[in-house]
Design brief:
This protein has one domain (4-211, 221-225): Aldolase class I (TIM Barrel), CATH 3.20.20.70. 38% of the residues lie in helices and 16% in strands. The protein is built from nine helices and eight strands. It is globular, with a radius of gyration of 16 Å.
């Protein structure tokens, strides 16, 4: 079965990159592209997802985007609680849950990001932290996805071992039997095959590598043959 690839451009990219994606992936299945908000209505050939929403349904919040606005332009997926949002914008678990609930209320699938810091990982607290995040971040719904992204692996080139990812995703699957589970954190064209081959990994959330059209094509090709 083909596995999911979610490409998070973060605050990067351009119309040219979007056009490159359209040429490479137009009408492809199992690929979700999350560009900056300004590009979200620039393609009908790609499945686009948002990187964030505001926790309020509407109001005097200059520069913010609501879930209903995303729904209005046909967006069906949205990242929620990415570690960079937690780190740079102070988003706590309760806020992540609020955003996820707004997504669900607007027929948008929230891709809820969870993961431990390096300090927590070294202290052996990974499952403890994830257990808390699952309890506090996830609404009572099956219509959501979860992306496990160890914070210490994002943008560092470091990744957990295959055994660690296997163990963590087995824990998540036990808690979330029918939820799509993604792995993120320094996924690239060299490690995607091994990561996608791990049981209970339904896809990957890709950061830096997705800005290179050749690299993301290789990752997507790998996802098509993973089982």
């Amino acid at each position: 079965m083909k596995k999911w690839v979610v490409a998070n451009w973060k605050m990067n990219g351009s119309l040219q990159l979007l056009q490159d994606y359209q040429q490479a992936f137009g009408n492809s299945e199992n690929l979700i592209v999350c560009p900056p908000t300004v590009y979200l209505n620039q393609s009908t050939m790609l499945t686009l997802g948002a990187q964030n929403i505001n926790e309020h349904p509407k109001g005097a919040f200059t520069g913010e985007i609501s879930a209903s606005m995303l729904a209005d332009v046909g967006i069906k997926y949205c990242l929620v609680g990415h570690s960079e949002r937690r780190q740079h914008f102070g988003e706590a678990n309760d806020l992540v849950r609020e955003k996820a609930e707004l997504c669900l209320g607007n027929s948008i699938t929230p891709i809820i990001c969870i993961g431990e810091t390096l300090e927590q990982y070294q202290a052996g607290k990974t499952l403890e932290i994830l257990r808390t995040q699952l309890k506090e971040c996830l609404p009572d719904s099956k219509d959501l996805w979860v992306a496990y992204e160890p914070v210490w692996a994002i943008g560092t080139g470091l990744t957990p071992t295959t055994e660690e990812i296997l163990s963590t995703h087995a824990f998540l699957r036990e808690k979330l039997s029918t939820v799509t589970l993604l792995y993120g954190g320094s996924v690239n064209e060299n490690n995607a095959e091994s990561i996608l081959g791990i049981p209970n990994v339904d896809g990957v959330l890709v950061g830096g590598a997705c800005l290179d059209i050749d690299k993301i094509q290789l990752i997507y090709q790998t996802s098509a043959s993973a089982n």
